[in-house]
Amino acid sequence: MTAYFKDFVISTVADRPSYHNVTEQVEQAIDKSKIKNGICLVQTAHTTCSVYFDEYMHDSNYYGDDYLHVDINHVLDKIVPRQSTENYPYLSPGPKHIAYGMKKNDPAYPAVEWTMLNTDGHIRADLLGNSVTLGIKDGKLMRGSVGSIFFVDFDQTRKRDRTVSVVIQGDE
Amino acid sequence: MTAYFKDFVISTVADRPSYHNVTEQVEQAIDKSKIKNGICLVQTAHTTCSVYFDEYMHDSNYYGDDYLHVDINHVLDKIVPRQSTENYPYLSPGPKHIAYGMKKNDPAYPAVEWTMLNTDGHIRADLLGNSVTLGIKDGKLMRGSVGSIFFVDFDQTRKRDRTVSVVIQGDE
Amino acid sequence: MTAYFKDFVISTVADRPSYHNVTEQVEQAIDKSKIKNGICLVQTAHTTCSVYFDEYMHDSNYYGDDYLHVDINHVLDKIVPRQSTENYPYLSPGPKHIAYGMKKNDPAYPAVEWTMLNTDGHIRADLLGNSVTLGIKDGKLMRGSVGSIFFVDFDQTRKRDRTVSVVIQGDE
Fold first, then answer.
1. Closest Cα partner for C71 from A133, A64, A127, A156?
2. Where would I find the beta strands (DSSP E) of B93-137?
3. How far is CA B148 from CA A65, B45, C80, C129, in A?
4. Is B90 left (phi over 0), alpha (psi -120 to 50) or beta?
5. Is there a contact between C51 and C43 (Cβ–Cβ < 8 Å)?
6. Residue B26 parent element (H or E)
7. d(C-alpha C139, C-alpha C34), whole Å
8. Which of C124, C167, C168, C171 best tests the B interface by mutation, with the highest count of B CBs <10 A?
9. Sorted alphabetically, which Gene3D superfamilies does this protein's record hold (chains A, B, C) (predicted)?
């Protein structure tokens, strides 16, 4: 039994949650791993992002968003409304966290206060979870006839490059 | 270290979410696997279904539903209301998905448009997740003194046979 | 490939959800396990508790609670309100479960009816889930630059000692 690792990068959109079907990349990783029986963990370490399991629904709106993703957004908009400013409707991020963020020096993402107003993204990601684990049997991902694995970035403040990691553990 | 697989089938009810305590089947699979130390993944590949971890609560209503499951339904009814017709309160399923579904030819489940009005089931399943992973130590599932594993089908449109899969990975 | 197990105990507070950053304990367990490549499951078997993945946010309120945890509480207070008495706003626990609980004989937690009025805790724990699974690569937990693992007890009725379990599976 061995472990195989594969990361891939997703380019997200701004101003709305950014959903991406990553099933094909996951299945390519399983093929490359040569692991035939075991488990497949698909995770993200970004704290405003989720990996979850659902179906591809064929129809999309004018923005190119799958109808089901738009429906998920409408449900989450009601229970975890988008953060409109500091101090409303969330306490976080507070002054210490803003100061911490302003000191970060990532040339790809210049530090600006409003980019940290993503508390809705954190809480939505907590609800959907940051990983999916599925079995691998006889070299096939156990996802049924219509199941797919989706990555979503709930941070709507800006577009970014995000990483999804696949960890495969089992026997060749 | 090795991987052991066991599927079992659950017959669901229609017109309300269908909850099933599957702990006994999972523990029987662990016994059969002879695996003593490792992890146990309990998953479903059905995209309107969840597997989650909670307690058996002893009392049930006139329908035979555990009080806690009725309480979960009441919470979810408010935030993810049942789909009453196409186009309300969800965009999904749209015309392309309906056309896709009508072409399916599963003799057990004849294609009818209204059977695809289950968007509430998809979103509820996203919130509760499609799997539970627990450790196995000295041959025992690490579920504490009262923890149980539940399968639930949130698709209320019709009764069906659904599959739950157990994947056990570890050492004998 | 081998499996390594480590439990640790968390002392919770009463009268509000009790959040605890357990990342350091998890990483100490990984170091002790000597496992370099594989997966790390962090789970709780308590049915009103969750383990979830998010960021430490630096600011805290007068109670010492991280702003983001207070924000999560406010979201959950609306959708899963705190149980105020038997029969409202939840059916559970019913008379059979109360009778079952009153027969328990745990000297650390004397049986009293009101301590079982924690249905909000059960449902909140279902939404956030009872475990986090992350990869371990080259001896490092794959949690990104700011990701942390949190344990939360949503049972607000009394303070208690709770157990978190780490299961690590992989190769040295």
1. A127
2. 131-137
3. 37, 20, 21, 13
4. beta
5. yes
6. helix B23-33
7. 8
8. C167
9. YjbQ-like
Distance CA C110, CA C106 (A): 6
Helix C67-79 × helix A67-79 angle, to 10°? 100
Contact A127 B130 (CB under 8 A): no
pTM (predicted TM-score): 0.98
**Whether A59 and B92 lie within 8 Å, measured CB to CB:** yes
Q: Is the pLDDT of residue B105 over 80?
A: no
What integer pLDDT is reported at residue B110 of this predicted model?
86
Tell me whether residues C134 and A43 touch, CB distance under 8 A: yes
Q: How many CA atoms lie within 13 A of A10 on its CB side?
A: 26
pLDDT of the residue at B67? 98
The set of chains that have 3 or more CB pairs under 8 A with B is A, C
Backbone angles phi, psi at A122, to 5 degrees: -60, -50
Nearest of C44, C31, C32, C33 to residue C3 by alpha carbon: C33
Q: Which amino acid is at A123?
A: I
pLDDT at residue C109 in the model: 86
Question: What average pLDDT does the structure give for chain B?
Answer: 96
Q: What is the mean pLDDT of chain C?
A: 96
Residue C123 to residue B67, Cβ atoms within 8 A: no
Contact B163, B32 (CB under 8 A): no
pLDDT bin (cut points 50, 70, 90) of residue B153 is: very high
CA pair distance B1, C12, nearest whole angstrom: 37
* Chain B positions with Cβ closer than 8 Å to C: 1, 37-39, 52-55, 57-59, 61, 66-68, 70-72, 74-75, 78-79, 127-129, 132-135, 137, 142-147, 169-171
Task: Please give the domain boundaries of chain A with CATH numbers for all domains.
Answer: 2-83+118-171 (2.60.120.460)
CA nearest to A74 within chain B: B90
Subunits in contact with chain C (3 or more CB pairs closer than 8 Å): A, B
Classified as helix, coil or strand, A61 is coil
**pLDDT tens for the 172 residues of chain A, in order:** 789 999 999 999 999 999 999 999 999 999 999 999 999 999 999 999 999 999 999 999 999 999 999 999 999 999 999 999 999 999 999 999 999 999 987 888 888 999 999 999 999 999 999 999 999 999 999 999 999 999 999 999 999 999 999 999 999 9
Count CB-CB contacts under 10 A for residue C167: 29
